[in-house]
Amino acid sequence: MSAGKREDARTIAYKALGAFRREGAWNDLYLKTAIERAGLDKRDAGFATRLSYVTLQNIYLCDHVIGMYSRTPLNKLEPRVLDLLRTGAAQLMFMNSVPASAAVNESVRIAKSINPGAAKFVNAVLRALSSSPIPEVTGDDESERLSVTFSHPLWLVKEYMLTHTPEDTRAWLAANNAVPPVTVHTNTVKTTTEKLRASLVSDGVQTADHPTLPDCLDLTETGDLQKLAAFREGWMIIADAAARMAVMAASPMEGERVLDTCAAPGGKTFLTAVAMKCQGSILACDIRDNKLAELIRSARRLGLGCIDTRTADGTVFLPELESRFDLVIADVPCSGFGVIRKKPDIRCKDRDKIAHLPELQSAILANVSRYVREGGRLLYATCTHREQENGEVVRGFLAGSPAFRLGHGEKTLAPHIDGTDGFYFALMERTSDGR
Fold it and tell me: Does pTM top 0.85 for this prediction?
């Protein structure tokens, strides 16, 4: 790219894929920075974001199809060329509004910045792909077919199929690749749902009442949420319906003392404060100072003055907090597979790098349970479907903690069944007699 020339939408999407491949850069953060730097308008920003997400959502299937038209094995291709072929294939296969000629020609234009040979190769592969129907994924192994068709790692598909039928597995995978709703919750400390809706509509946002949750709206045609007047005024909390359901199960009440032990970025913290009508106190802890700083800024914008913060490691005991809280929330670090539909790059996580999570989750749960007063409540939550990180952790904790018992609030949520993120929560109670 020549000096002073701004990157276009397709180039940004292609480079986002490269940043993720090389550095593990989170896709949404890279896109936000690159789009702002390029000064893209709303339309082009939306196209760059959509192309990037569609490519990641379908990356295994894109590779499968590219491999059918490439004379060079994919593992022998220059990585930048493969990234460009992926974004080109994604446009041809999944973005019907994009003319095939534009998808091919613009990919070739970008390829010229790599080298002339790359441009010829990209042109040949994408033209062949554009003139043929998308081939059906075949093979005798159903888990392998599903893995490629829905672009989920094979190990994850096989793991899910151990406890679910093939039909349920297919529905789960399809839901993970669907476009999720944008869900917001009224900050009733500041406004009403009627006023929030009116503000959103005046900014061109389409709203619909959530089917089950009060003071909750599903939005479409949002654009950049942070540019909406309702966001700037602190009238809404952006969080999936599953987070609200977990908070409702914990039943935070006015005047209570609450500890959120892994709080950042703060969605459940804010929902808890609103449920308490900001009457009481919440101590929001996290190990990451920068994330706590963001939480503080958001709390101020929302006008939730009952929230205080502290940098803390959830595995390290703080004696001064022992038995002080009516409610302790442990929304622990997890594999995050429940939010694949919002963060498609999560599907590419290294299995070995998440193997330690149940041990970490158990350590956090055991430690923060010491902060619950007698008669108080302990909420354990993850945004994943994996039983190793959910029920097994909770049952292991309860087996070694006779002072706690499982309450009525245990639930696993799934996108294809509940319309929410994949989520798990379990509400436990500390009995006064330790039995």
Answer: yes
Region 177-205: mean pLDDT is: 96
Give tens-digit pLDDT for 156-187.
999 999 999 999 999 999 999 998 889 999 99
Contact 243, 413 (CB under 8 A): no
DSSP letters for 117-165: HHHHHHHHHHHHHHTSPPPPP--S-HHHHHHHHHT--HHHHHHHHTTS-
Angle of helix 391-399 relative to helix 357-368, nearest 10 degrees? 50
Per-residue pLDDT of 67-82, as tens digits, reads: 999 999 999 999 999 9
Token pair listed for 27: 């896709």
Options 3.40.50.2300, 3.40.50.150, 3.40.50.300, 1.10.3210.10; which CATH number does 247-430 get?
3.40.50.150
The strand pairing partners of 382, in sequence order, are: 424
DSSP 8-65: -HHHHHHHHHHHHHHH---HHHHHHHHHHHHT--HHHHHHHHHHHHHHHHTHHHHHHH
Please state whether beta strands 182-186 and 236-238 pair in parallel, antiparallel, or not at all (unpaired).
antiparallel
